[in-house]
Known about the structure:
The protein is of the alpha/beta class. The chain has helices spanning 2-10, 24-33, 53-72, 97-107, 120-128, 150-160, 167-178, 203-206, 221-236, 262-268, 305-318, 343-351, 356-366, 371-380, 391-396, 460-465, 467-470; strands at residues 17-19, 41-43, 137-141, 146-149, 194-200, 258-259, 285-297, 338-341, 368-370, 413-415, 424-427, 436-441, 449-452. It folds into 3 domains: 2-72, no CATH class; 88-192 and 217-254 and 457-472, no CATH class; 193-213 and 255-367 and 416-452, no CATH class. Strands 5, 6, 7, 8, 11, 12 and 13 form a 7-stranded mixed beta sheet that branches. Helix 2 links the parallel strand 1 and strand 2. It is flat. The two termini are 44 Å apart.
Amino acid sequence: MLRASVAAERAGVPSVSLVSPGFERQALATGRGLGFDGMRLAVLAAHPDGQSTDDMLTSFRSSTLGEVVAGLTTETRVEGATTSEPTALEVVASGTIDELHDLFCARGWTDGSPFVPPTRERVEAFIAATGHDPWRSLGVARPSGREITVWSVAVNAVMAGCLPQHLPVLLAVAEILAGPHYGVEHSGNTTGADALMVLSGPVVGELGFSHGPGAHREGERANTSVGRWLRLFLRNVCGFTADEHDKATFGNPAKPLLAEDMEVLAEIGWPSFAGEFGFGLDESAVSIGRINSTVMIGSVFGDTPERILPYLADGVVRATGWDLTHVFGLGRGHYLPLLLISPMIARVFGRAGWSKRQVQEALFEQARVPAWKFEALIGEWTNLTAGRRTLADLVAAGELPSAFAESADPDRLVPIVTESSKFLIAVAGDRNRANALAMANDGPHGWWTSRFVDTSPSLDLACRIGDDECGA
């Protein structure tokens, strides 16, 4: 609604946005991120999902309607207005480690765990060896309207305990957050989906990222500190806090960066995870998407693809529920679940000569749910999809593939994605264990996006010194 209001305001049409209680700050922050401070709001008496239609109409007439009228009769918001915040080099705190920790916690600048104080000297030293211009802009964080710079990336990296050699990965992720594709403005939605970074290519080994046992949890400095950096950066630059954009009902813990096992991928001839987005096995890239829930698929038993695939397909189905509204409803064919398999499982496919594409096609055939349940999840059990149409109706209208209406039997099994390539597969973890993880994706609320990781020395500062040579 805020985006529609901003469009109206830019066209010179006064607007008022309806919001549920508790979302006022998020709405105002979203407006600021879109270039309008102080957007007009009218607050509903309660969340619509918790009211009957009659109660909602009654409370709207008695209280909310007055706010709508008042909002429409006030002056137009000012485009480009900004709030007052400390400058990048301003000293905002001093004291002992304990005093700094207390102050940062009180101001919401940290996640509650101990951190490295981001002094000017530490941040400058972090950037110094890389050649990057500290003040180079990577874009604007749409949720908050704050500028994303190399400096702001480094400040949060120092706090998280990252090493300077991690900066290329951090900058690539920051560029994803600044771009329009990933949708960082959806971070903190009520389901509590959280960002997962997947690192692929030579950079995994070059920068010391772990891809072995415990690959998806804390324990290794590179993976853990970069994962923490993302949450701190979302908090301090993008406004990912309870006061602004984090409205998760429960939330999930921060996710360490997940690094792929590139040796095993090369051994079995599979492309990397980033290969789904156009990168070669010898190219370094980081991918980021938002994950709703994760299901452990333990002790996968079988020595052939045919024996282990039903187990993997069942896990992906068990991880998938309301997320099907991203197949049809909130998104159209936008559901991209991730299956993380251990190298031991990957080698079963490799020995049988199976390509990753063959695995995806097999998952498409086997990872299915009853048609009545799919229809309930996108219709009867949600208000996120209008019309309550059947899958047959949607297929007849050309809005879903024919695989969703091969018969009229409500118990027929239908896919959970619109095509086989929508299943994403990554390889990491203990090489001596046959386990897997199925992860549900939040669709366009955190669209999988990849970016090249450039580890070559930056010419930023060299170009500033010798503009004549670098101007071309």
